[in-house]
SWIM-type domain-containing protein
Amino acid sequence: MDWQKYFTLKTLDRGLAYYENGNVLELMQTSHGYEAVVQSDSGNEYEVNIEIENDELIMNCDCIYGQEMGYCKHMAAVLYAVEEGAEIIQQHDLSKLINRLSTQKLREILLSVADQRAVKYKLQLLAENDPQTVLKQRLNQIIRKYSAAIDELESRDYYNFSEEVLALLEQDIYEIDDSQWECKAECVRYVLDAMHRLNLDEELDDMWMIFNTCYEMLGAILMKDESRLGWMKKKLNPTYYHEMLETIELGV
């Protein structure tokens, strides 16, 4: 099957890099295709589901690109893993394994997972009535992490920095419920403000991805309902508003 036809060359390159670096985790064969967890370089995890129907692929990923903009690098990474013969868990084997575990053992496993830094952060985020504080703290941590080299970032540093910021956008901010759309929009705006303060080159691919994702998300949040136009006119920087409309128009 020519599965590569679904992806751009750039997406294929990134997907191959993810596969070769061992970022495809928990690859599992299902009755209709495959499921897997793909870990980004910053440690965030994305769930990928691929179904095969009449020699065509139906693919889903819980990153923002997979959900809103088509086929992503995480999907490509999984397909490379399948093509290259990576170890695959059969779905029924996993179910049998879980059934063999005692309640006490399952509790121990859950507690050990909950002790991981990323899971602790997610629990903290879910516990907040207003997640803005936690998200802003997290973004500031990412910026501080790279601040020593922020003026002379090597290409790898740009990539790692953008991966961590994109994970914040795609996972944490994206998952804020639409009933809190103002909070969601404020968080995206905060990311944009921070990126502009750093004077990063928007023309670089990795930086462009951050800005483009922000404008895509703002468009999805604010253009969803006419009642949100008031917030947009009052609080959104005119430059952001223009870039948001241009991004939506181009559909990039």
The chain has two domains: 3-100, 131-250. Strands lie at 24-29, 33-39, 45-53, 56-61, 89-90.
